[in-house]
Design a protein that fits this description.
Blueprint lengths: L12 H15 L23 H25 L7 H4 L3 E4 L5 E5 L14 H11 L11 H12 L10 H9 L7 H17 L2 H11 L9 H9 L8 H10 L3 H4 L6 H20 L5 H10 L17 H15 L5 H6 L2 E5 L3 H18 L11 E8 L6 E5 L25 H11 L17 E3 L4 E2 L19 E2 L9 E3 H6 L3 H11 L1 H10 L23 H12 L3 E2 L5 E6 L2 E2 L9 E2 L3 H17 L13 E6 L5 E7 L4 E10 L2 E5 L15 H13 L67
Parallel strand pairs: 1-3
Antiparallel strand pairs: 1-2, 3-11, 4-5, 4-16, 6-9, 7-8, 10-13, 11-12, 14-15, 15-16, 16-17
Length: 751
């Protein structure tokens, strides 16, 4: 038995088959495309993905996101700019370049990038986006930081490049949402690929909000430093770049210590960044540091069109629209215009002060009914240039007075028109006998100055008046004083009407009107032919009358008064705003002789109150029938100014008599208007030399009116209570027609 080998156990047929069935059962189990939950695992491991599954999921998600972003980028379009970003205001500047006024709902004036100094551009790039010129318009790291901050519970941050901020300001809104942020990134990428960096930076600078209601860098430069953007330096630009970050605080850096400290710290940081980005050297940085923090000017929130600002803006707007038909009310309402005016800030204030002081000293509307509704208008023009330097249009828009008293029609000029008649006679002569050539006239020529005389025309026919019982015109003076035959010089000094009515008829309406237009008076302001025309029934504005007298001051060289020197729109200069060229309106000998006569009005005539100026001056008083207006227009070599006083109930636009105003029985141009003129001119000419007028060239003896004895004595002037010059009538004898109802005031379209 020991030699017998034992045989191993043999599988039974049934056992082998069973094992085969179990194997085939495992092999036949279907395999899932995604093995999750994981097969063959139990417990927690069944639910943990494999590394292959994690990697595949990440790749799948990344691809899906990339596809979604790609689709969004391909389909998104750059929207139209927000209408609000297209809105600008119009800015009006004084002659010294400071802001006179603005109009419009948004304080923005777009400028070109070329107007922004390179150093100031560098301030913003260093502070906001140092990689601006090299990045694609978005900053992934900044976006990631913003997302992390938001994930930690903070507010949605921008993480924005300059391009993104430009997109947000111009095309989107300021909402802090992921949807808006996603759009911002996509549009920024598109704009970064299609728009030049210069255009993006320009748009950014024009749309940033800086506080103090300033949108865009030009408005910011004005409200913080009272400078145009072109004149900003790097230090001031650093402050503005800092203000963009926190405008609501930095706008008070002029007065609030906390705001000042934070603004100064941020300003210093911006300058440091300029050094780090290579925009400044350490030496330059040190110079700005030693100069100190550029404290912004005191902020006074917009006061609106108060005081004289409303009238000045209206003058400038009218002038611009007349000289550029492309500038319409509609285009002005959209804004973007920068209008540089001739108006002198100091002189405008002095003129308003002169009116206010005289009114306060002479009028008492609270206790004297006659002093109510008394209005004044005034204008001041530079004879050498034609610039309108100052106007007084009324108490201001804030007082609901919207009609500009310096630039309206409807107030007759009275005897201030007589110098026009004299100038025309000196230039063209006068037909003293029917059928003869015009005879030469000089200030020494004598005419009948008596009251109530009959007037003849050039044909020797008496001028008629169908309201007179006799059917003939009897011209009257202010008094019944018998002047006899007096020189035109004396008649001007004492404002005697009859010589100038007869002289006007002898010269003729056509030539007198031609002289008036040559002096700058608008044709539509001239009265129709009548005897009253020669003594002031016309209604030129105070501005135009100042311009006419400025022509006398300039020895006959006329320059149309103007109010605008330069206009830009969206940074582009508009053509057509050159200063008007001077033209010869009168021979120098004629103009200088008129001035010599008007000097006599001041030294010994109806305008003697103007002697208080203490300077060489010439001028003329004017008072109309029934004292419905009172004027004084005077000038020196440097300045011509007109002042008018009238009375009008705003509810009833009709001229009323000035009788009783200031407690005076009669109100003459030589009284209150001359006082206003003298007070203003004293201030306006302070510090300037007293320049003599040119000596007038001799015009010879001239020709007297027919019937004047060759040696007729000149009567001594009657003593007067005040300067005047009225076209008046006696009871039952109508005077030449003078409108008693003032036409509704309308601004002149040309000044």
């Amino acid at each position: 038995m020991s030699g017998t080998r034992r045989r191993p156990p043999q599988r039974t047929i049934s056992g082998s088959r069973a094992a085969g069935r179990r194997g085939r059962a495992r092999t036949a189990s279907p395999r899932r495309w995604i093995d999750y939950p994981r097969a063959g695992r139990a417990g927690v491991r069944r639910w943990l993905p494999s590394w292959r599954q994690v990697l595949a999921s990440l790749l799948l998600c990344t691809g899906a996101v990339a596809a979604a972003v790609g689709y969004a980028y391909a389909t998104i379009t750059i929207p139209d700019p927000n209408p609000s970003t297209l809105l600008q205001n119009n800015v009006y500047y004084w002659s010294d370049g400071t802001v006179l006024a603005t109009d419009g709902s948004v304080n923005r004036q777009n400028v070109s990038l070329a107007q922004v100094p390179q150093g100031v551009q560098g301030d913003f790039i260093a502070a906001e986006n140092a990689s601006f010129y090299s990045d694609p318009g978005i900053d992934p790291q900044g976006i990631a930081r913003a997302l992390v901050h938001m994930g930690e519970g903070g507010s949605v941050q921008s993480g924005s490049t300059i391009t993104q901020q430009f997109v947000k300001n111009t095309y989107l809104d300021q909402s802090q949402t992921l949807t808006r942020k996603f759009k911002e990134v996509l549009i920024s990428a598109k704009i970064g690929a299609s728009m030049s960096k210069q255009r993006i930076l320009q748009g950014y600078l024009n749309t940033c909000f800086f506080g103090r209601r300033a949108n865009g860098i030009e408005a910011a430069a004005r409200v913080y430093y009272d400078l145009p953007v072109e004149k900003l330096n790097v230090s001031q630009g650093a402050f503005l770049a800092a203000a963009v970050n926190e405008p609501s605080l930095f706008q008070y850096a002029d007065s609030d210590p906390t705001a000042r400290a934070q603004a100064q710290a941020r300003w210093s940081w911006v300058l440091d960044r300029m050094v780090q980005t290579g925009k400044l050297t350490q030496e330059q940085r040190a110079r700005y540091a030693s100069a100190g923090f550029p404290v912004p000017k005191k902020w006074t929130p917009g006061s609106g069109l108060t005081g004289q600002a409303g009238y000045l803006v209206q003058l400038a707007r009218s002038y611009v629209q007349q000289h550029d038909p492309g500038v319409t009310d509609s285009s002005l309402s959209r804004g973007g215009y920068q209008i540089h005016t001739t108006f002198d800030r100091k002189k405008t204030a002095e003129l308003a002060q002169a009116v206010a002081k005289v009114r306060a000293g002479r009028l008492d509307p609270a206790h004297r009914a006659a002093d109510r509704n008394v209005q004044a208008g005034a204008a001041s023009v530079d004879p050498a240039t034609g610039r309108i330097l100052a106007v007084y249009g009324g108490p201001g828009y804030e007082q609901a007075h919207y009609s500009d008293n310096a630039d309206t029609s409807g107030v007759p000029v009275g005897s201030t028109f007589k110098p026009v008649v004299l100038a025309s006679a000196l230039q063209y002569g006068a037909v003293l006998k029917p059928g003869t050539s015009p005879a030469s006239i000089t200030p020494a020529s004598k005419f009948n100055g008596d009251d109530g005389i009959q007037i003849k025309d050039q044909q020797g026919t008496y001028v008629t008046d169908d309201k007179d019982p006799t059917g003939l015109l009897h011209q009257h003076n202010d008094t019944t004083h018998r002047w006899g035959n007096i020189s035109l010089r004396t008649a001007m000094e004492q404002s005697v009407n009859t010589p100038y009515v007869q002289l006007g008829e002898d010269v003729g309406y056509a030539d007198v009107a031609r002289t008036a237009k040559a002096l700058g008076l608008r044709p539509q302001s001239l009265a129709a032919p009548s005897a009253g025309f020669y003594i002031g029934t016309s209604t030129p504005s105070a501005i135009r009358m100042a311009g006419a007298y400025a022509t006398f001051a300039a020895s006959g060289m006329q320059i149309t008064p103007y109010s605008v020197t330069r206009v830009t729109h969206d940074g582009a200069v508009l053509p057509g705003f050159r200063a008007p060229a001077p033209v010869r309106a009168l021979p120098a000998a004629v103009a200088d002789n008129v001035t010599d006569v008007l000097r006599g009005v001041v030294t010994r005539g109806t305008g003697t109150k103007a002697q208080a100026l203490g300077r060489t001056a010439a001028g003329k008083t004017g008072t109309t029938d029934d004292y419905r207006s009172a004027w004084f227009i005077g000038y020196t070599r440097q300045l011509a100014t007109s002042v008018v006083l009238f009375k009008e109930d705003p509810a009833h636009p009709q001229l009323q008599s000035l009788a009783g105003v200031g407690g005076l029985q009669k109100v003459f141009g030589g009284d209150i208007p001359t006082e206003i003129w003298t007070r203003y001119m004293s201030d306006a000419l302070s510090g300037l030399p007293d320049l003599p007028f040119p000596a007038p060239a001799s015009l010879g003896r001239g020709t007297d009116e027919p019937g004047v004895p060759s040696a007729s004595p000149t009567p001594r002037p009657a003593k007067r209570a005040g300067g005047h010059g009225r076209h008046t009538t006696t009871t039952g004898t109508p005077r030449p027609s003078l409108p008693t109802a003032r036409p509704k005031c309308r601004p002149h379209k040309c000044h």
